[in-house]
Amino acid sequence: MAIEETRLMLLIDDEPAQSRSVSALAAREGWRTLVVASGDVALERLASLEGAEIGAVLLDQRVPGEDACELVRGIRALRPDIPLLMLTASTSPLLAVEAMRSGATDYLIKPVAPDRLLAALRSATRAEAPRDELQPMTEKLQTVLDFDAMVGTEPPFRTALARAATAARGHGHVLVEGESGTGKEMLMRATHAASTRAKTAMKLVECGSIPSTSLESLLFGHEKGAFAGAFDRQLGLLETCDGGTLLLDDIDRMDRTLQDRLAQVIETGIVRPTGATHGFKIDVRLFAASDFPLEELVQMGEFSPALYNCLAANRIHLPALRDRMGDIPALTRYFLSKIGEQPGLAHHSIADSALTLLEAYDWPGNVRQLQAVLFRAAVFCDGEALTASSFPQLSQLLGDSPDRGESRHRGLGVLLYTEDGNLRALEEIEADVIRLAIGHYRGRMTEVARRLGIGRSTLYRKLGELGIDNAA
């Protein structure tokens, strides 16, 4: 691939400041950036000899405006396989749907955190197959702020929710640990929403995406003239959220000096802005999230012991999706119901063949990746139900016949849909249910009839009509 040889990215953007920022970020990953200010120029460059070296396209939707999807189609016509990311300030899922159907690889909502942009670019351009449907995407659905939206019944997950619910009723700080994509931010928001501070100020800070000097001013504030460029006094979020809650995502990526300073604020209850001669008494509850176990980072000398001790009293671990595979059917149906509510998308059910594929994959990107895969499949599905053919990369990765044993054990052995996504005939489904019941209750026909809610005579009549051997 060209990206491996030249690492040249085409940026379609007419804002010089944003272009410089994106170019600097892309340089971290070894990309040279070619900036153009219009769609017409972009198409000309892609069609040129130089265009053959371009390995990715980043498009700010504001440049072509309403013609963005048309430009995406034009780029796709020239370079069918090139990774194409669209940046937009619009939060409308309809635009996401239109962009992806036009050929966009991914869709990112501005302002995009640097790490999110780099992750999307890295994922979209990685050489390994399968790509497309399995790559992580930015969130396309509104985050629901309550525990009811945290779907799952597996013991490790219910334990995490129970600990969070207990923490919500208390007053201590909270630490949420778990792999990326497990739902740590959502759990923190739900915990705040269930807490006694639910109606007070709440702010979220993504520590990993903000430079250390900027993060220091954002959290602690600074006085005018405290350092070069401090032209005005800035109120820090620790002071702004007095009486409320501050959510710190990726706290493990915070600079060590800031960790120690934050620990001091927690211990004393006093925050002193940079350059100030006096501090302010505050009452802030901290919810912190980390992709890595902080206790291990402390032991390796990579995290402040003082800050860890401040946070660890309410420590919650969110399990990876591979450790709660039994929740995949419920999560799938929940996400499909939410996706179906979005403008431009239909309500889809899921065929047994598709659910088998989803259950056979180990989901390194966890719940966030599952949601992204379902969103992408729903965008391109014209039928009533998602089938195995809706997930071609998963089929390629897992093979044509992943083991169905675990699904059948959970009672998912009755197929509701044909492979083309249409519902099977009612009498075929009914026959399968009766066969399943006869096998499950070992031919005890009285028990079969009772469990199916019908009389024995009705059961035997159906056996005859459906041509079922009662020894099935």
* Helical run tally: 21
Chain-averaged pLDDT: 84
Helix content: 40-55%
What would the CATH topology of the largest domain be? Rossmann fold
CATH class descriptor of the largest domain: Alpha Beta
Q: Radius of gyration, Cα only, in angstroms? A: 27 Å
- Give me the CATH superfamily of the largest domain: P-loop containing nucleotide triphosphate hydrolases
N- to C-terminal separation? Answer: 55 Å
Structural class: alpha/beta
Q: For the largest sheet, list the strands in their spatial order.
A: 2-1-3-4-5
Low-confidence stretches: 1-5, 404-412
Biggest sheet statistics: 5 strands, parallel
What is the 3D shape? flat
Multimeric state: single chain
CATH architecture label name of the largest domain = 3-Layer(aba) Sandwich
Count of individual beta strands: 16
